[in-house]
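Researcher: We're teaching a course module on how sequence relates to structure. For the next exercise, students receive a sequence and then see the predicted structure as tokens, so they can try to spot secondary structure elements on their own. Here is the exercise chain.
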Amino acid sequence: MSKKICVIGTGYVGLIAAVGLADFGNEVIASDVDERKIEGLKQGRVPFYEPGIQGYLERNVNSGRLSFTTDQGRGIRRAEVVFIAVGTPGQEDGQADLSLVEQVVEIIAANLNAYKVIVCKSTVPIGTNRKIKNRLKALLKAADREAEFDVVSNPEFLREGRGVYDFFHPDRTVLGCESERSRQVMTDVYRTLNLISTPFVWCNPETAELIKYASNAFLAAKITFINQMANLAEAAGADIHVIAKAMGMDGRISPKFLHPGPGYGGSCFPKDTQALVKTGEAWGVDMSLIRTVIEANEEQKMRMVRKFTGLLGGDLTNKTAAVLGLTFKSETDDIRESPAIKIVAALLKAGARVQAHDPQGMANFSRLFPEVKCCQDEFEALAGADGVLLLTEWNEYRSLDLHKAGNVMREKIILDTRNLLDPREVRAWGFVYQGVGRGEAPAGQ
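Model: And here is the predicted structure for the students to work with:
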């Protein structure tokens, strides 16, 4: 049975949820306080880059199943299910900023006019869903009003660049419910996933909240582990690709996230690992492993700067560095916590000029670094460069025209932090080449 749904927040998680739930046959109103964003969505403009979302947006708007509004109260009053999908960015002390969630709870309380299921899709610390429930009760009592509701924790597990696919083909759907009534509602909401035998994990809200943090922290730890193994492989003359392949053949380990690089970034792993450490401190639990993961990830970025500096003779003063790839991963325009941010900042501080290219991330990056020359293509970025850093695994960089690159660069030096290129082929074109974990001692160390 289809449901009337209001999704509050039209950022990455909220918009994908809105178009996906509408495509499941539900009637969805997506709301946001950003008038410009809502007007753009009404006109079919997606505010971020994500493969596949445009078609789903147009199809469900045209069908009448999906609409947009800045009137959050109206959306809530009309809905049977209200999804909270606002941002919870990390604060300077590492804790999650829940101010937007708190604002939404106030609006929900003011507009509860019948039984509703309040679904928190935002990533929130353990205990937040219970606090939402208690806060709603307190607000209703203060207003001398009565209304029935349930609160459900339903964390998202979307990979940027594959978020649309992940919404329709999840590995699992986690639902932290405490009543049979809310469980039945959520079964109806996700009935399409039931039909394709998606595993449902039913649990209490605290378990659902921690599943999200534990999953992201584990993946961050796996990335950090393979980066440290890659660094050891460099020192010892071993090949991290063969090591990772052999490790991945073990069913207990799996080959996913065993790809060395300049460190993890993005909107989830950095803030979620920090928040998990803070949560552990609040509960008196030692989270030393996750703390070490965070520290090692920051060190990995600076290690790339040292490697590049060593390749260029130990001094970057007045040198021109070409940077290919600015987003934290391919198939997104998201630069949040991208390794490129700290690496480029360090290059500039060391006296280098930076010329950069990224298929999707340059507009966002140039707002942070107006002094960086953002180029129309990779060869404009390479022109006159003393060396190039490959920082993001965009496919177009895997097939870089080495002949053309060599002709436009001042010095033929490549630091391939994602191991995109074949070292033998690159060196055959006369380049000095270093990857990560490919059995070569780091330059300058």
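Model: If you want an answer key for the exercise: The CA atoms of residues 85 and 122 lie 5 Å apart. The longest strand covers residues 4-8.
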